[in-house]
Automatic annotation (TrEMBL):
UniProt-listed InterPro entries: Hexapep (IPR001451), Hexapep_transf_CS (IPR018357), LacA-like (IPR039369), Mac_dom (IPR024688), Trimer_LpxA-like_sf (IPR011004)
EC nos: 2.3.1.-
Transmembrane segments: none
Any GO molecular function: galactoside O-acetyltransferase activity
Naturally occurring in which organism (per UniProt): Companilactobacillus ginsenosidimutans
Pfam families noted in UniProt: Hexapep, Mac
Protein family: Belongs to the transferase hexapeptide repeat family.
Top class in the EC scheme: transferase
Protein name, entry field: Acetyltransferase
Entry-linked PANTHER family: ACETYLTRANSFERASE YJL218W-RELATED, GALACTOSIDE O-ACETYLTRANSFERASE
Residues annotated as domain Maltose/galactoside acetyltransferase: 5-59
Length: 202
């Protein structure tokens, strides 16, 4: 018979009150506490703890405390990642974050879900579904990413959005539930290239 951890990672119903999962959770809580106790003068220590907490960490990764990861081991983060204050990763299932991704304050990633039926839910059964975030993504503050969501490449998610369905590449998406507002186009590129030019001229 499969372990509760194997069921959890596979997206099947499982019970979190399990010795192996308790040990993984305790490990993460300890590392979360140590990470959040670091100061602005201890960035090397902070980075070392983060790389112990998170399963895979790329180059130039910065997460502003406070930060919480349920397990940490089930998350991979690419290069050039930034998360502002109060990021939460409920990574019961794999969380994959690509390169050049930025989070505003209080962005939450929730892979875990609970049965709608109360009888089943009250038996402590739950499930999780993986979350994938592509490359070159900016997610505004207080956004919530729900189980099973994939966010494509080159996407901007508006602040306060509740992402319940997958978002395609090259769009601005906003709202509750989060929906595509428009495509990102050449006019956007021209506008921001001009703003960058003005920046260097002034």
């Amino acid at each position: 018979m499969r372990s509760q951890k194997e069921k959890m990672l596979a997206g099947d119903l499982y019970i979190a009150a399990d010795a192996q999962l308790d040990a993984d959770s305790k490990r993460a809580r300890k590392l979360n506490r140590l990470f959040n106790a670091t100061t602005e003068d201890g960035l090397d220590v902070r980075d070392k703890i983060l790389r112990e907490l998170i399963g895979e960490v790329g180059k130039n990764v910065y997460i502003e405390p406070p930060f919480h990861a349920d397990y940490g081991l089930n998350t991979s983060i690419g290069d050039n990642f930034y998360a502002n204050f109060d990021a939460i990763f409920v990574d019961d299932c794999p969380v994959k974050i690509g390169d050049n991704v930025m989070f505003g304050p209080r962005v939450s990633i929730y892979t875990a879900g609970h049965p709608i039926d109360a009888t089943v839910r009250n038996e402590q059964l739950e499930y999780s579904q993986p979350i994938t975030i592509g490359n070159n993504v900016w997610i505004g503050g207080n956004a919530v990413i729900n189980p099973g969501v994939t966010i494509g490449d080159n996407v901007v998610i508006g602040s306060g959005s509740i992402i319940t369905h997958s978002i395609p590449d090259n769009v601005v998406a906003v709202g509750n539930p989060c929906h595509v507002l428009r495509e990102i186009n050449e006019e956007d590129k021209a506008y921001w290239e001009n703003k960058k030019k003005q920046y260097f001229e002034n």
